[in-house]
Amino acid sequence: MDNKALQKLKLMLQGMVNRMTEEKDFFEGLTGEFKSGTKTFPLVGTLEDNGLKIRFEGRSSTIGFDTLPELITEYAGRFEKVVITYKTRGEALILEADNKNVGVKTKRLEEDKEQLFKGHAEAGTVSSREYLIKPGKADDLLKAIGIMAENGKIRNDMIRKYNQIDHFVELLEPMLKELVQGKNELTIVDCACGKSYLSFVLNYYLKEVMKVNCRFTGIDISEGVIQSSREIARRLNYRNMRFVQGDIRTLLYEDEAGNTLQPDLVISLHACDVATDYALAYGIRNRARGIVCVPCCHSELLNQYDYAPFKDIIKHGVFKARLADVLTDGLRCMILEAFGYMVSAVEYVSPLDTPKNLLIRSTLTGKFHPGKYEACREMAKMLESEPMLIKQTVNMHKS
User: Fold this and answer.
1) Could you tell me the domains of the chain?
2) Residue 111 has pLDDT above 50, yes or no
3) What is the DSSP code string of 48-105?
């Protein structure tokens, strides 16, 4: 290749390296083809702890990203054509150079985004519904989290869980599109993450379908589930995820350097009873831009509340339990609104899949409203109760 083509190639490689540096956690591989006549010489690059390992012509060396353009350009000087492919999760950047042309293209991103969403939602049905996280495209993910068997079939005992997490993504998609406006990356915290099904699925959908860079933190008090989640992340090569054993009642969201940050989204799926309150309080305390939860097991208020005007109704245990569910989640919505969130409560999945089928979705739009918060406390007093979310938030607005 002549000097003019080599200079253009080097410039393109510098742009590729900038992107590789920004997306290091999504790096999947670097390959190259150096052509001379009928012969082709392959190059392979893999990410190591101490840099980028390059194997070419029987030799290997470990370099920093910043020295890659110089090295590739040096190699290219002896060849007629070069093709370099950088693979990241969900897409590939392809650089082609010869004496006539030097250009770069992005595979899959050349499609219109709306068509990409539409195409992803086609086919792949289980139980007569269409899936966003569908077999054939997300097999590695579905197998890693135990929803798909090794033969490529959705396990019968996991169809209900599959329905839940897929519909969660469907309900979150409009919020995700809103949160990503004007941002290069979304930060998401999964409170009381358990086995982290939801985080793994959202990670896949954001990066590989919506093409949004993202970072996940899963928090759980159980070291066992944290270790399990770390292992799944390792198997999937999801380096943009970290899992922390800790208590969400006291943690602040921080980066690796210990700086306090505002998360874009806090999620919680079926955190049992007051663990949902701890998750909501975590989101409020950290002023998360969005908070989404699917509550579970409403036993706290059931064991506390009483309301004289309804005594002849709630004397029946089944009615008292159903009303406790509504009152618990209603108060949660009121408290979120008091802290400046716009809140909606929607049916999550069919009651046939799970009786706990409410999803609370909230977006930060304003500041703390003392009057609204006092109304929550008055409501709790009328019910002769003190819900956990009030106890968790009572002094937050003073800090």
Assistant:
1) 3-107 (no CATH), 113-123+160-398 (3.40.50.150)
2) no
3) ETTEEEEEETTEEEEE-GGGHHHHHHHHHTT-SEEEEEEEETTEEEEEEEESS-EEEE
